[in-house]
Structures are given as C-alpha cells and as structure tokens.
C-alpha cells in the first residue's frame, strides 16, 4: 500500500497503542506530546478503522498509531457497561497499552480499578503488554517520584515503567522507543500518516452491530459489518438550522452481510426485525450523541467480505 519506500523497509515496525488512565491523568497532553505537532487530524470523513485514532507517531523506523478509548470507568448504566466492553475489546486489539498514572496524585481506587481491568487484558488471549507511564513527573520532587514509581510497580505486572513529563518533554522520546519495541514488524498502516477521524461514528457502528446481532448471533457470528455513512444535523427546508430543542440528527448506516440469506435474517419478515434493530440501536445512539436521532439503516450484501482485504478495508477493519 505504502508509496513511501521507508515504510516497506524490512525492519520497520507498525501497530496500535492505546492510552488509559483515570480522568485528568494527562492522557491527552501525553498523546499530543508523543505525536508532536506535525500530524494534522482531519475529521468529518468516514472513519477507516474500527477505533478512533487520536494521532500517529511517524518515525523512519516505525509508525505508532494511538487510538482512543471512550474512557475506562466503573459502569453505572447499561450504556456504561457496553462502553466498558468496548474498551476491553479495544485494549485486547492494540499491540501495547499505556497506563497513565499522574505523579502528583497517590495511587487510588480509580487506578486500582483500571489496574484490575488491565490484569485481565495482560492475561488475555493476546497477552497485550501494558507500559505504565508516570505522567506529570515535573510536578514532584525526585524523592516523591521515586516513591510513586515504587507504588506503581506494586500495582501490577507492567512491561516497563516510564516517568514522563509531557509539558517539559522529559522522556517522551524514551516512552516512544519503549512502545515501538512492542510493535510487530510491518509497513506503515497509514501511508504518510494520513488519517480520518470520527469519534462518534465508531461507537454508533458498535451500537448498531450489537442490536443487529441480538438473537441471531449463532446464525451470523462474524458475517456482519457496520459502516456509518454519515451523521448530519437535519436542517429546515431552506437549509437553516432547526430551532434549539428541536434538533435532529440524521444518522445513515450501512449494515453489510455476506449473503442474501443473511440479509433476509437481518431484515426479517416484512422488515419487522430491522425496525426492531433500528429502535433498539436508536435509543443507545440518542443517549450517546445527546440528541434526537433519525436512524436510516440499509442492509447490503458484500460477498465474502471477510476474505477480501479490499472489502475489509472499505468496511473499516
Ligand atoms: N505539569 C504538568 N501538567 C500536565 C502534564 N500533563 C498534563 N498536565 C495537566 O494535567 C491536566 C490534565 O491533563 P489531560 O491531558 O487533559 O488529562 P486527560 O487524562 O486527558 O484527562 P481526561 O480527558 O479528563 O481523561 C491538564 O491541566 C494538563 O495541563 C505534565 O506533564 N506536566
């Protein structure tokens, strides 16, 4: 795929990393520091991966793609539980996880909750490594930092522990080196670091997929892919915005199956099942987007999409 010769070099590495940590742990600031200012993230185009990309670290020897998670927190609602499932799924799919722990705050219950979740991820199918990043290292003394590193060490079985300061740029390069070590050999995933980014679309697709599979999981285990075509605010006939309180989002979604028989299953008799799927997915999407939604679902057949890399890419895998 890459037209860039360096991306095809035999010792080039590429893969995904994901930053987790309690609110205010310094994840966004660290992401920006890792990525630097060279990469612009364009938004508004259809997403090309299943997970939201926050930034790409491009080096001659590696491409590290930083993906977002909606936030790991103790679930309080069903949607929260769904989100946490999604988080865990993301965490098992990336090549390395970065657990951010701010140096200026004691290791607390929130960190221990995340550490327990990460223990599962490390023990999981792929044995995803977790690197602990002690963030905001500039805010404490050397002694405090040393103590904090010890506390973090006792919290779990981390692949490495790296103190960093995103603000001062301290050890940001070291952290990148450590993360790159955990990536598999491979060419650039995004040639030249170009990407599209559409946070909500990923979650909307997951909600539709979940609803579409409900009750028919045995019949359609992996033959269903969901692509969000667009999410646009409905305007009035003259193109002006609708009045406050009366906003409506048009959400157009394609559900791809492999065969006509599967299309029939998803749609159901006279479209009854698809209407159900739409109703269920819509309530989740409205909760997620915080707006009334008109959900437009289309079921399409994409033959053998699981075996066709071109189709797979088109479907966001
Ligand atoms: N001194 C110092 N402050 C930092 C550093 N990194 C982040 N901060 C500050 O810590 C606060 C939280 O940082 P964020 O990057 O927004 O944290 P986050 O984990 O993305 O937060 P959520 O979005 O709430 O999950 C901000 O006020 C940052 O300016 C650092 O390396 N040094």
TrEMBL record:
This is GTPase Era. Residues 68-71 are annotated as: G3. The keyword Nucleotide-binding applies. The keyword Oxidoreductase does not apply. GTP binds at residues 21-28, 68-72, 135-138. GO terms for cellular component: cytosol; plasma membrane. An essential GTPase that binds both GDP and GTP, with rapid nucleotide exchange. Plays a role in 16S rRNA processing and 30S ribosomal subunit biogenesis and possibly also in cell cycle regulation and energy metabolism. Residues 13-185 form the Era-type G domain. It comes from the Bacteria. PROSITE patterns: G_ERA, KH_TYPE_2. Monomer. Residues 47-51 are annotated as: G2. InterPro entries: G_ERA_dom, GTP-bd, GTPase_Era-like, KH_dom-like_a/b, KH_dom_type_2, KH_sf_prok-type, P-loop_NTPase, Small_GTP-bd. One of its GO terms (molecular function) is small ribosomal subunit rRNA binding. Residues 135-138 are annotated as: G4. Keywords: Cell membrane, Cytoplasm, GTP-binding, Membrane, Nucleotide-binding, Ribosome biogenesis, RNA-binding, rRNA-binding. Belongs to the TRAFAC class TrmE-Era-EngA-EngB-Septin-like GTPase superfamily. Era GTPase family. It is found in: Cytoplasm; Cell membrane. Residues 21-28 are annotated as: G1. GO terms for biological process: ribosomal small subunit assembly. It is a peripheral membrane protein. Residues 216-303 form the KH type-2 domain. It comes from Luteimicrobium subarcticum. Its main location: cytoplasm. Residues 164-166 are annotated as: G5.
